[in-house]
């Protein structure tokens, strides 16, 4: 029995040792105690970062001291690393904030902060309108003789005079019925004034649209089902029935996107109107205007695939056109021209603003094409020779599929100084899904399944197409169609530091905004277009 007891004791001792908490657990508890009278370190309050620090510290101490038998010899645990402490401190505070914009995305906090910061009493105009004791203005208007009102209206421009005449019944009788309306209706010099006056009626006519060539409202014939059609398809798919539809002297306004594709002004009107009045009764969503297409010319050097996307920012329609074409390495000057210019009208295949001839845009595209790595000749000993030279110069292994880095000329974004348009020219590696005509199994064979990556030139264009009021009063539309000069529209002055590209991309991607320098597409402010000979 004694032996049994002793065995029982020893097993008890060993069992106690075995049940003794592990070193790491003791340290965790010590840390909890060292934190003071605060809450105990529990699983819920232990962050991943702190656990990681503890284990690292423990293994480090174990390695340094070698002896972990002595419980009292455990080194004091330092507080967590400063960066982690900082993160832990601010994590909760930043939880409801947008990472890029710093805006509060917690709607409850947002509403509360609004109610605290600005009271509803601060709205002066609201009080002004709601002031029931304010005397009505008719008597004050009637106190002036009609001749004076006519003198005032004669000094105003035609649009404002009509607005004044229609303001109320007293003014209408004083200024004479229809006198100013007739002035607006007659005379080509008042045509723009008439259009601007008619745009004021937009809100009351959701099922009509202002026709610019006729300067009158037409009834929309496909309400909510209007679709942009390609220009070259010769499909007349109009928004309304217009007598001027096929009049070549007075054509409807449209903006050229690429060969055979354009943006009619009616669609800019529809998209901006629906956004301005907040109802799809008035027009279309900007998302419904986006299109994708491919275009190649017989004898051309490649097929261009183009995609468009639209977005409305501050009531103006922004457009992005991405044009892409696979390019062979080491193209001679003729090959580059064949790839970039259409043989039909000698415009670029990609989307460009009317000022493309005046700047460095085409030079930049040609420079970007030069950066595509040329595959090396490996016949005979040339492969070994190249490898040897690479080793001497400390270069890595040559990779023909590497993403080429662009130079200081072709890497920055370019902005046209005379219209709100920005360009980004890139060389990218993309998958070529077109069947290879030189394939041993034939061009349309399904056996040739290998994934093929090739270098492609990608030209992205961002443009501001204006607010859709009228083609002349919308400065952005007029500039994009080349109807203004540098005095009337200077894009660097108007746009400032915030680029259209930045506004557009931040509307779709939450966190990444392209960080590129924006420089002028035409630093020397060259003009003349086709008359100069350096554009081709
Ligand atoms: Zn019309
Ligand atoms: Zn370059
Ligand atoms: Zn331009």
Task: Name some characteristics of this structure.
extended; two-stranded antiparallel sheet; alpha+beta; 536 residues; 7-stranded mixed beta sheet; 19 helices; 34% helix; disordered N terminus; binds zinc ion
Report strand order across the widest sheet. Answer: 5-6-7-10-9-8-11
**Could you name the ranges where pLDDT drops below 50 across 5 or more consecutive residues?**
1-8, 31-70, 118-127, 442-447
The oligomeric status of these chains comes to single chain
The average pLDDT is 77
From N to C, what is the helix and strand string?
Answer: HHHHHHHHHHHHEEEEHEEEHHHEEEHHHE
Total DSSP helices: 19
Query: Which cofactors or ions or other ligands sit in this model?
Result: zinc ion
Q: Please report which band the strand proportion falls in: under 5%, 5-15%, 15-25%, 25-35%, 35-45% or over 45%.
A: 5-15%
- What is the CA-based Rg, rounded? 36 Å
Straight-line N-to-C gap: 109 Å
> How many beta-strand elements?
11
Helix content: 25-40%
Instruction: Categorize the overall geometry.
Output: extended
User: What does the main sheet amount to?
Assistant: 7 strands, mixed
Question: From the helix content, strand content and strand pairing, which structural class follows?
Answer: alpha+beta
Biased composition (Basic residues): 20-31
Region (Disordered): 1-48
Biased composition (Polar residues): 1-17
């Amino acid at each position: 029995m004694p032996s049994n007891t002793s065995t029982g004791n020893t097993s008890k001792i060993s069992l106690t040792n075995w049940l003794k908490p592990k070193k790491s657990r003791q340290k965790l508890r010590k840390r909890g105690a060292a934190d003071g009278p605060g809450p105990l370190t529990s699983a819920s309050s232990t962050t991943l970062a702190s656990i990681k620090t503890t284990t690292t510290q423990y293994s480090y101490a174990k390695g340094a001291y070698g002896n972990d038998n002595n419980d009292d010899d455990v080194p004091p645990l330092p507080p967590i690393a400063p960066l982690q402490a900082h993160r832990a401190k601010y994590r909760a505070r930043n939880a409801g904030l947008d990472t890029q914009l710093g805006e509060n995305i917690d709607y409850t906090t947002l509403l509360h902060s609004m109610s605290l910061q600005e009271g509803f009493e601060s709205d002066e105009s609201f009080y002004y309108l709601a002031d029931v004791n304010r005397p009505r203005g008719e008597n004050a208007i009637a106190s002036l003789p009609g001749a004076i009102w006519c003198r005032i209206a004669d000094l105003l421009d035609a649009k404002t005079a009509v607005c004044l005449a229609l303001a109320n019944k007293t003014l209408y009788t004083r200024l004479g019925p229809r006198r100013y309306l007739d002035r607006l209706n007659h005379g080509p010099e008042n045509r723009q004034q008439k259009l601007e006056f008619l745009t004021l009626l937009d809100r009351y006519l959701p099922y009509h649209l202002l026709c610019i060539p006729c300067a009158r409202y037409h009834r929309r014939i496909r309400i909510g089902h209007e679709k942009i059609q390609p220009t070259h398809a010769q499909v007349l798919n109009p928004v309304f029935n217009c007598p001027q539809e096929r009049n070549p002297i007075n054509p409807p306004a449209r903006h050229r996107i690429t060969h055979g594709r354009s943006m009619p002004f009616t669609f800019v009107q529809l998209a901006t109107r629906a956004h301005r009045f907040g109802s799809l009764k008035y027009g279309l969503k900007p998302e419904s205007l986006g299109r994708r297409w491919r275009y190649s010319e017989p004898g051309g050097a490649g097929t261009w695939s183009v995609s468009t996307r639209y977005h409305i920012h501050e009531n103006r329609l922004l457009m992005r056109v991405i044009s892409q074409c696979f390019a062979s390495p080491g193209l001679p000057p003729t090959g580059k021209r064949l790839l970039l210019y259409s043989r039909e009208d000698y415009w670029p295949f990609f989307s460009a603003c009317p000022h493309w001839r005046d700047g460095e845009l085409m030079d930049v595209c040609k420079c970007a094409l030069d950066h595509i790595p040329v595959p090396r000749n490996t016949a005979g000993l040339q492969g070994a020779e190249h490898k040897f030279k690479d080793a001497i110069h400390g270069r890595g292994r040559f990779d023909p599929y590497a993403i080429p880095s662009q130079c200081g000329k072709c890497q920055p974004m370019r902005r046209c100084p005379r219209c709100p348009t920005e360009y980004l020219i890139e060389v990218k590696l993309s998958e070529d899904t077109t069947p290879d005509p030189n394939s041993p199994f034939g061009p349309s064979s399904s056996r040739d399944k290998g994934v093929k990556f090739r270098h492609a030139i990608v030209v992205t264009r961002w443009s501001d197409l204006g607010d859709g009021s009228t083609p002349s009063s919308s400065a952005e539309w007029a500039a994009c169609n080349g109807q203004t000069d540098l005095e009337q529209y200077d894009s660097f002055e108007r746009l400032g530091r915030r680029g259209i590209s930045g506004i557009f991309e931040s509307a779709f991607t939450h966190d990444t905004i392209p960080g590129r320098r924006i420089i002028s597409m035409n630093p020397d402010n060259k003009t003349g277009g086709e008359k100069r000979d350096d554009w081709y």
